[in-house]
Amino acid sequence: TKKTLETNYHGLVHFTETILPLLRKGTDPRLINVASMMGRLSQVSPALQAKFSSETLTMAELNALMNQFEEDV
Fold first, then answer.
1. d(C-alpha 2, C-alpha 23), whole Å
2. Global pTM?
3. Half-sphere exposure of 4 (CA within 13 A, CB side)
4. In the list 9, 44, 68, 71, which could disulfide-bond 48, CB 3.0-4.6 Å?
5. Is 9 exposed, middle or buried (0-12, 13-18, 19+ CB in 10 A)?
6. How far is the C-alpha of 27 from the C-alpha of 62, rounded, in Å?
7. Letter string b/e over residues 32-70, b meaning 16 or more CB atoms within 10 A of that residue's CB
8. Alpha-carbon distance 40 to 19, whole Å?
């Protein structure tokens, strides 16, 4: 689980934070996310769905949710 999270979550966060400044310099930047069916929010409780899909969710809050997930698993 730890190795999977390092790749699928932490790796993606690092890549996104690295590439965003470059994308912002472009005239028509695009960021496309490709995910498996396992990434669907319908697999978690309605309370967690609301937290993960909140428009005000901060990176600190997202990291806390992911840390809690890792501890739970």
1. 30
2. 0.74
3. 7
4. 44
5. middle
6. 29
7. eeeeeeeeeeeeeeeeeeebeeeeeeeeeeeeeeeeeee
8. 24
Tell me: the pLDDT tens digits for 3-62? 888 998 999 999 999 999 999 999 999 988 887 776 777 788 889 889 989 999 999 999
Residues in the chain: 73
Give the Å distances, CA to CA, from 55 to 2, 38, 39, 70.
27, 22, 18, 23
36: left (phi over 0), alpha (psi -120 to 50) or beta: beta
